Each structure stands twice: as C-alpha cells, then as structure tokens.
Amino acid sequence: MAEGQPEAHSDKSRFLIVGIVLILILVSIYIWATGGASSLQGFVWSIAKWMIFFVIIGIIIFVVFKFLQKPKVDLVSVDAQSIIEAGILSKPPMLKDLYFTGDKEHGEFRVGKIIGYCQLQSYKDLNKVAGLSEEEVEEVRNRGIDPSQYIIKEDCFVFKKFGFPMSLFEAPKILRTLEKEHSQLVGDVKIFGVSMIKKYSFYYPNRAHLDLSRIDIAVIREAWRGQIHEFLKDMVAINQRAVGLDSEHKKDLDNRKLLKVPSPFGEQESRGG
User: Fold this and answer.
1) How far is it, in rounded angstroms, from Cα 33 to Cα 201?
2) Residue 100 near residue 108 (C-beta atoms within 8 A)
3) Which residues contact 51 (CB under 8 A, 6 or more apart)?
C-alpha cells in the first residue's frame, strides 16, 4: 500500500487507538495488582478528569478557530441551493411525482415527489458563441448552423423521495434533464431512462454520464461565475475594512459629503469655497 493513501492513514489511526487502549488496560491491571481497587478507582478518576479538561480545551480552541476562520464556500453546493430555491418558488401546481420509465428489462419505478421545477440554459462551448457580434451570429446562421445547438436547455426537477413526515428530515435533490428526456409537464412526469447518476451534487439520467459538455463544462462555468461573485464580495469587505481602519480617511470622506451641495449645473460645489 502506497504511503499517503486514505487506507494507510486509516490503518495507522486504528493501530494508534488500539495501542492506547491496550496501554491503559495494562496500566490499570498493574495498578490494581499493586495498590488494590482503591488505587485503580483513583487512577480511573484521574484519567476521567484529564479527559474532561482536554475536551473543554479542545472545544474552546475549535470555537475560536471557527470564529476567526473565513468560512469555506462550496460553489457547486451554492449553485444547487439556488436552483432548489428557484424551483420551489416557480413550481407549476400540476406537477406531482417523478418516475423513470426503465426499458424492456427494467421496470418503471418512482423516484420521489416533485417539490420544485425550473429551467436553465448553459453553453456547451461558450467560446464559440459568447464573443460573436450580431452580424457574426447571422453569418453563422447563413452557413446553415444554428447557434442554439451550442446551448443546453435543461429542465431541473427538485424532488424528495420520502413522504410526510420523513420528508421534513430529507434534503431536496435536483434532477437535471433535457426536454426530450421526459414526458409532458402534467401530473406525474416520467424520465426516459433506466436509472440516475450523480455528478457534482446533481442527478442526471444515466445516458448523460459521459457527456462532458453537458455536465462537466456546465458545472465548471457555473462555479466560475460563483467565484467571481465571491471575489467581488471580498473586495467590498476589504474596502470597507480599509476605510474603517483609517479613521482620518473616513472622517475626511464624511466631511466631504457634508460640504458638498447640489449645483444647478448638475455638478457639486463646496460650501465656503
């Protein structure tokens, strides 16, 4: 087994725990044999007090570390949560349950109850159409190429497998499909497939597993947009903190706001010259 593999670390951790337990057992037997039950009871009580002490210290360090540390952002999970919220708000009332049709060897089965629905668009190849002008797009059409073929139009079904009350403790799931991959959006919706696959917090019909442009590129582009948003939020926070730390600069800005008055010519004039 190669060094650094998860299995190797797991084996080392188990070996360490077993070793500590064996040492404590041997020490307890030795104390009981030399000092009797009272000595063993005192030893156990001492161990318990030290364990409680270290647990309290560990909790304090953990809370302080979490308070000071900037929370990590899972951009894919953020995108998934956005789809869930949008789907719940825009769900048509006629949608009921979600099914997979299977095939001649696999029977139809129920996936869960639809609690949300929304539509998305993403580019298969952003570079082919994103930078084109209207004239260039028209030239592409004149060559017999429809620019929309580079765009993925997906229907997102938000569902839960279990019914009430177990659904209260179940996290919503998202199935992303193409329009041609499911039946009409009335009543029970049936997905034309045998099973689901899960990639990057989303579920897809099994036939989409190797479609890199549909899954991988789309998820990467969405995460990239989310990264830009996080960067802009960080820049705002940095600027606010910088202004707040420099009290003289902040005071000067406040004074300028007070001294500026509207001008009839559309510009600001200072009071008193």
Assistant:
1) 57
2) yes
3) none
What's the pLDDT band for 3 if we cut at 50, 70, 90? very low
**pLDDT for res 131:** 63
Residues in the chain: 273
Angstrom distance (rounded) from CA 180 to CA 184:
10
pLDDT digits (tens, 9 = 90+) for 38-86: 777 877 888 888 889 888 998 988 888 777 766 677 888 888 999 999 9
In sequence order, the 6+-apart residues with CB closer than 8 A to the CB of 243 are 249, 250, 253
Any idea where the domains of the chain sit in the sequence?
Answer: 78-220, 227-260
Q: Give the torsion sign (CA, 129, 132, 138, 144).
A: negative
Q: Kindly list the distances between the CA atom of residue 34 and the CA atoms of 26, 31, 47, in Å, as whole numbers in the listed order.
A: 12, 5, 18
